[in-house]
Amino acid sequence: MSSATSSSRQAARRAAIKRTVSAADSAPSTTDASPADSPRGSASSTSLSSMASEAELKPVQKSYGKLVDTYGNEFEVPDYTIKDIRDAIPKHCFERSYVRSMGYVFRDMILLATTFYLWHNYVTPEFIPSKPARVVLWGAYTFLQGLFATGLWVLAHECGHGAFSPSQRFNNIVGWVLHSALLVPYFSWQLSHSKHHKATGNIERDMVFVPRTREQQATRMGRLVHELNELTEETPIATLLHLVGQQVIGWPNYLLTNVTGHNFHERQREGRGKGKKNGFGGSVNHFDPRSPLYENRDAGLIVMSDIGIAITATALFFLGQRFGWSNMAVWYFLPYLWVNHWLVAITFLQHTDPSLPHYTAEEWNFVRGSAATIDREFGFIGRHLLHGIIETHVLHHYISTIPFYNADEATEAIKPVMGKHYRADVSEGPIGFIKAMWKSARWCQWIEPSEGAEGPGKGVLFFRNRNGLGVKPLQVAAPQ
To answer: Do β-strands 375-376 and 424-425 pair in parallel, antiparallel, or remain unpaired?
Structure first.
């Protein structure tokens, strides 16, 4: 078979994949289907002649040239299929239980209520005369409540994916109540998060923590593209300020302006994105039924999300009027900031690491994008209070309808299929998780092709930085 014929078949396959995934983008549910999204077809669903074509397609890896991640490790694009992943997982891992899932909801609510009762009644001047001691203890209260509330947030996240129970109606009722109580627009986030799962690692369609390309980074800094590798090191204080801003206002900023999401809204097929862009005043947010993040048919769900937020805001207003705003700040708003912190930290570290690739639209597919995630470890807090969302994220991206209490077993099942493509950073446990925030902020500043990339390999992008860490950025010649 001629190379031209082989290339045309590969191009046709990629075009079919792109059409399939584009069509999936409009799905209103986050219950993930299995897209036709792997680099090669499954042998169990192909004829002998197409299996011969598959054998010819396997060596295409060589045409990518030498791909190198930020650590300097050589990288190969995944070549397994979503069917390989599904077939490896025991069937009972897909089973969802109303009773078990609601049991975790009640457990987290009891933790919240018990903590409030104990602090409200016993961390008082009568029992603890020392004011500094009371301040420290109430600070601990906000931290604990933030963890317990984040646990409820994660359970609502399970509802959004259909992993909470077999009934999506029941899932949506529970999820809407829990997320609304945490000032999260449930359906609005559910829809945009679904699109994130369907385009993870695609720099033109992903919905969260899409890294800047070298060109975008240069533009943001008011530099020319070739100047990035000549800049002096970013000061640690600049990195720290960036992280603090990200952790404090990152979540509400994302909901209000779509910061870190893609900015190709003109491509919205119903024309809703015309003239709209990320940022304040750009009309791209999670509250406007006309937002280009959604389709026309989603408008009612966005309104329902806004109603949930309005109900919670009204309740908080009357509670503030009744019990005082200083009390409400400690009881609700400071724990709320802790929730925001954990959400941003978790999401950032699930998708930002020196070992992870990103892909142009031409080289992306579902299998590759889902493998461009990483599991981490947060000890007892992560596995029990936050329901394993940190430790089993790779599996979650492949099949997000598996409930969290079966995710550990399912993760172990897919590791042999993924092989070297499975990524985890579990060193030092919770301390390592916190350290990874600093490391990722210093190492992962923009993405660009590897120096040795060839042909389609130029569509596989890796993090680079101006801090002299890891592989150096490309040497780009100045324009003549």
So the answer is: parallel
Angle between helices 429-443 and 334-351 (to 10 degrees): 70
pLDDT of residue 475: 86
Q: Is the pLDDT of residue 25 over 60?
A: no
Residue 11 has pLDDT above 60, yes or no: no
Whole-model pTM: value is 0.86
- pLDDT of 226: 83
Strand order in the sheet with 452-453: 74-75, 65-68, 452-453
The two three-digit tokens of residue 117, written as one number: 């009762």
Answer whether residue 231 shows pLDDT above 50.
Answer: yes
pLDDT at 8 over 70: no
Sequence-distant (≥ 6) Cβ neighbours of residue 43 within 8 angstroms: 51, 54
Q: How far is CA 183 from the centre of its chain?
A: 19
Region class of 213: left (phi > 0), else alpha (psi between -120 and 50), else beta:
beta
Beta bridge partners of 464: 446
Q: Which residues contact 182 (CB under 8 A, 6 or more apart)?
A: 149, 152, 153, 156, 312, 336, 339
Please, which contacts does 40-47 make with residues 24 or more away whose CB atoms are closer than 8 Å?
A: 40/79, 40/81, 41/81, 42/81, 42/83, 42/84, 44/83, 45/83
- Give the pairing type, strands 65-68 and 452-453: antiparallel
